[in-house]
Design goal:
The protein is mainly beta. It has a single domain (25-163), classed as Beta Barrel (AOC barrel-like), CATH 2.40.350. The chain has one helix at residues 2-19; strands at 28-46, 49-62, 64-76, 82-94, 101-115, 118-128, 135-145, 153-163. The chain has an 8-stranded antiparallel barrel. A hairpin with a 6-residue loop joins strand 6 (118-128) and strand 7. The longest helix is centred in the first third of the chain and has 18 residues, at 2-19. It is elongated. The relative contact order is 0.19.
């Protein structure tokens, strides 16, 4: 009889522990403008596809306040579609309810073009340093973008961010 009560108590304890919710705060919204220009592009062709390795410099305003550099690949597909995949490095401050935090972060940026609105895509924070080491986030971006080498262009970004741990 005692064994039965011990097993029942253990099962109840395990269920109680599993039912405790995680102590995470809700994500904060992020939004602003990324202005950038392409300062170098390397072109390669394979069949009817064109591959452009692009090197960009930019500035972000809004939730992210700072400068960016980016290396990306623009592919002009035989079908007429255009896609983009790049890694961006941001150096600056990120605004949060706990105050601005500074450091460096790396983001993955992917997208496609071209309709009447220009580019649209997604961004994900991959890693960070200093006060941005625990920053996580993802979102979308859209806009006309840069019109060619050394021509400034803008895209709007929005999404959600969260500082893991001590917020």
């Amino acid at each position: 009889m005692n064994k039965k009560y011990v097993v029942i108590l253990m099962a109840l304890f395990i269920l109680l522990v599993l039912a405790i919710p995680a102590q995470a705060t809700k994500p904060d919204s992020a939004e602003g403008v990324w202005s950038y220009f392409v300062y170098k592009a390397e072109v390669k062709e394979a069949g009817c596809n064109t591959f452009l390795t692009t090197y960009d410099y930019g500035k972000m305003t809004g939730t992210f306040e700072g400068e960016t550099t980016e290396v990306g690949m623009v592919v002009e597909h035989c079908s007429g579609g255009v896609s983009f995949n790049g890694n961006m490095v941001f150096v600056g401050e990120v605004d949060s309810p706990a105050g601005a935090r500074s450091g460096t972060m790396e983001m993955s940026v992917v997208g496609q073009c071209c309709d009447e609105n220009g580019w649209d895509g997604q961004w994900v924070i991959l890693s960070g340093t200093e006060e941005l080491a625990n920053l996580r986030g993802q979102g979308t971006w859209s806009g006309p973008g840069a019109g060619g080498p050394f021509v400034w262009g803008d895209v709007d970004y929005e999404g959600n961010i969260h500082f893991e741990g001590n917020d």
